[in-house]
């Protein structure tokens, strides 16, 4: 009984985080977050100028949304684990989220490198 309550609580928290990531990713992609120190992809490159800030937010908004959507996979993973004692879906969910985090950084680094090259070749 306690385990079921804990799984339900974890599921609620994870769904709330997923919804939050989807909302934040959508707003980042549309460029609605002004430069700030709280929400968004805050790196040295993005904080250098307002142009860089909006470029990075538009670049990384989609991967943040994908990560938010992947949080919803925890519900069937918890259900499968609870009723079948099969943890394969838990591993698949963790692997998918690790892949999305790595993809986020690949998109970020390749995009910022491309943007810096465009800026230097314009001058």
TrEMBL record:
Protein name: SdpI/YhfL protein family
Alphabetically ordered keywords of this record: Membrane, Transmembrane, Transmembrane helix
One Pfam family it belongs to: SdpI
Domain of life, source organism: Bacteria
Positions of transmembrane segments: 6-24, 66-83, 89-109
InterPro entries cross-referenced by the UniProt entry: SdpI/YhfL
